[in-house]
Amino acid sequence: MNLPADPALAALTRRHFFSRCGVGLGSIALASLMDRNALRAAEQGGATPPLAPRTTHFRPRAKNVIYLFMAGGPSQLELFDHKPRLNALNGQAIPDSYLQGKRFAFMDSSFKNRSTLLGSRRAFRQQGPSGMWVSELFPHTAGIAGEVTFIRTCATNVFNHAPAKLFMNTGSSQFGRPSLGAWLTYGIGSEADNLPGFVVLQSGPRGPRGGAVNWGSGFLPTTFQGVPLRAQGEPILNLTAPEGIDADRQRRTLDAVRDLNLQRLVDTGDPEIATRIAAYEMAYRMQTSAPEAMDLTGESRATLDLYGVDPAKPSFARNCLLARRLVERGVRFVQLYHTNWDSHGGPGETLESDFEKVCRDVDQAQAALVRDLKSRGLLEDTLVVWGGEFGRTPMGENREKTGRNHHIDAFTIWMAGGGVKAGAVVGETDELGFGPIQDRVHVHDLHATILHLLGLDHQRLTFRFQGRDFRLTDVHGELVPSILA
Amino acid sequence: MGAAAVAVGAPDYLREVKPVLTDHCIGCHGNEKSQNGLRLDTAVAALKGGERGPAVVPGDAGGSLLVQVIEGRHAQLERMPYKRSPLSTASIAAVRGWIDAGAPLPAAETPGHRVHWAFVPPERRTPPGPVEEGFSGGYPIDAWIGHRLKEAGLAPSPEADRATLIRRVSLDLTGLPPDPERIEAFVADPRPDAYERLVEELLGSPHHGERWARWWLDVARYADSNGYSADAPRSIWPWRDWVVRSLNADLPFDQFIVEQLAGDLLPGASLDQRIATGFHRNTQLNEEGGIDPEQFRIEGVIDRVGTTGTALLGLTIACAQCHDHKFDPIRQREYYQLFDFFNQQDEPTLEIPSSGPVQGPGGPAKAPAKPTTTLVLAERSAPRRTPVFIKGDFTRPGEEVGPGTPAVLPPRPFEGQGSRRPNRLDLARWIMDPRHPLAARVTVNRVWQQYFGRGLVETENDFGTQGSPPTHPELLDGLAVELVSPTAEGGFGYSLKRLHRRIVTSQTYRRASTVRPDLLERDPGNRLLARQNRIRLDAELIRDVALVASGAWDPALGGPPVHPPQPEGVMNLGQVRREWRTSLAGDRYRRGLYTYFWRATPHPALAVFDAPDAFSTCTRRNRSNTPLQALTLLNDAAFVDLADRLARRLQDGVPWGDPVAYGFQLCTGRRPKPGERERLQRLLDGERRTGSDTEAWRTVSRVLLNLDETITRE
Which of A12, A215, B133, B416 is the most buried (most CB within 10 A)? Predict the structure, then answer.
């Protein structure tokens, strides 16, 4: 199989593909090599692993994203969109003019008083330089209003949980499209050389609807898909060496695999083998780096208290702190999912005690994350995004307690940090909070703006698949300049 | 193409100029579209011009608008053809020459009409020139590959050595690596037809159907769960077993397709033919609370139209759901005419009698305890009405349409049906009509892609105008014509096995895959196939190779999907926590094909090696190369278990040679070179100094199962 047999030609082969394919082999110990020439050639090649940082379209305002995904669709009317008129009309029928041509979830099941307006019982106060209204359920979040741009007029297309989550993440309710995190790591690479570029953390009673497709890479290479780090046990599947294999033996195993692969690389000239050697080295480093990133023993008592973390227990708070640690270690995109914000009014889904509980789950920690990032100088490079897959209707669903249905026309999300205005409000809804009357921000616009903040033009970030160039924003999306600092 | 003007006389318009305009201009300036009022499909139209005046001024090429824009020197207009490569110097010279000679008009001219290559039925052609050693050979593969290599002045690589060949062809035809005993026998086989005998043996193996079933399951978006958020389990594995049986029996490909699209409509449909319609029941099913069921029934129909278009026509028909296709001649109305064929079904569950055909050939079936069911299609008695959905939105029904096929493709030969409404069976027969320009091309291209890592048309799912043209158009057409031609005329008669045989016995397929410096320079993408390509194995085959090498493999065929070990916590990732009760005994060691596939929470060892997600049709897999793959092979419980089994196998004594070399051959198919053997021996000796003999062999086995070569088809 040694082709070409002539040694001079073989040397030429090696030089040739190493210089062309630019393979990086990292920290390979010279001592155990069978073929030192190959190593030298490899090292001269420079490093271009698939996740290496890439040039952006223009100067980025942020380098990393922490996306706090409020799974289930939080009620903007209980948190941010203060509507005294809605409160005044509590119990009255919504004017037909609002409902014409609209479709809602659970259309078939006729529950009582679907069209009856439900006022919010929550007290609101204006906060920060923008005078943004924040409800009593978010006391800590109210305290960071000066860092945040609130968007009250976010709109989406789909009103069922799984397709809507998919839409918020991929810009499409069809499966098979890459998620925002995948597009970003594809577009700008990662700065972590011993952790994945896109990491997912989850908290709450169950996983988000739709599961892994929410952080999938779709038609992009799988290198770019989100890697879920688990709250307990091994943070990455198969991260720990099997029982009976200590660190030394694992290293000796890897050394032998590397040496034999290197020999094969020399014999075949296939640069894929160089990539595989590099992947094994990264895997080895991850065995140390991932548990280290997840280990909170080095965090001060003050930091733990700021977030409200009990290090022994999985929680949204713990994940917020982990998100900061991951960003510090160069991870490009950290997405946190917290369930369950679904508030139809049935058992476990009331706007009363259940909603209060889920607000308590997140309030302190999300505010602490922004404060902590700021105090460490990380906020200017890190974009924090908060929001669900849709909002809730101004009409109530009165089951045993009160609730609201899914609503796609106007709901609130907020952003803070890298390139975003500190203390601003974008958009205004009508007096019932049903639809936007000023500055509607569609999911596609949001995506275009997030990509822009990371230095990418949403119209130029494309991938050719099934005969056409696909974008995160499909054929839509406009930058929202009023969000930018 | 227009040739350069010869010295004597002006270029002839019909022979030299018109073909240039037809190939490059009339897409936008013809009878279908005439941008800015300009048409270039006749000389008279060119002289008349459009909104900007005449395109051609007789006798003055330099002053003619046409010449200014194709040369890219017009002050306001972009260089034409717009956003495409400029015309060749020779073509421009022909246009100039004709105009300078006074732009003489032909006596009688029919408007130029350009037809995209893929819409023209394929033809059999033989390469020109004499047959030469090394460059030509069997028709059509070696003849056309050799012809192009010769044109490019590239020498083909020699044939791979025999150990490489037997592992390559075994993995490609059965998905299983050969035993060292079989390898040694083949290497030593002096008969001139040793390779051909091997190919026959493999094509006859019951595992051939398993290997190629996976090829088809990707296209069919097969999974064992319903998808969407709840992702409930489903039973449709009898359809998967039908695919395995049909491929083993070499069911002609036209029948294979007709039965899957419309088996229920065949006269006196057999149980098997009804099971076959499970193909289009592999769509997802949404059971989330609060949904509009009609919305998701329509999503299913949309998926069936898109899958049929991609898998059999190689067209991005799905693009026409919301608007007329931007690039290909498919109108939105025509999309809904196709949609109508798939809008007329109920979606029942079929109970299979216990005496039914649900068992694998050549092996005992795994008998399920409960009555076996599978999902099928059944035609409704009263047809649904199909409207065009405005902008693809099902809440905005527009004009009503009936069943029909795109006008650009051959008309349907629906003879003698009188006033009967055309149905799926008519559609299926139309698609598989031997005169149809697409289905055979698309199929042979995807088979080719399995063997060489890339199709002759690289955009295997887009044969439309935005797809890439074939690298070897005559070869693609040659294989397509062979596929559909009757065996009496020397064709394959729709036999896939004949197609496989033709490809794997070609010299092109058998060449060494080693990278050559001269090829890196001249043909870096190996488009001309002077050598084979190294291909990382598919996810399921990576498992299969480890199963066989370790000796743990249970070769049983068919039956319900199984649950090999997987890391804890995987099933927590979905919305509803599903059960994964790890299989015991033989079912723990079944081929990757049989691993239970949950759409929301696929087995990580499959997902990490790019098994498709089964949400939509997959006509080509990704081949990523990531650290998570390394962690899987190193640490995943299933692979550690197999490494332990391999270690025991080597420790217990091997039939010949030393266990290190034998283990290497079990995994890679070849004997190690001295340096490789020595490196492994050094590892073994070192491990023996720090631990037990068993631990030392376990380490060596893990190394062997992690080698790049082990998971690669060389």
Answer: A215
